[in-house]
Amino acid sequence: MAQIIIDIPDALVTRALNGLAAHYGYRAELDDGTTNPQTRAQYVREKLRKELRTRVLEAEKQVAADIARQTVTEIDITVT
Q1: What is the domain count for the chain?
Q2: 5 within domain boundaries
């Protein structure tokens, strides 16, 4: 299995995690008042994985739609 590795300088890890966690809406405390079982790092990792899957699928759908548009031909219909 291939891996995508993101190297972040040690001095910027906290900043990167905090920024991405905030962007994706991480909350340390859940609606029911319990502590979030996911750490910021786990949450960000999951969100980045989902984001990657979403972007790949969107791109594939766009390519498929473009190909379908190119293969459709007009039809001549007369209604009387």
Answers
A1: 1
A2: no
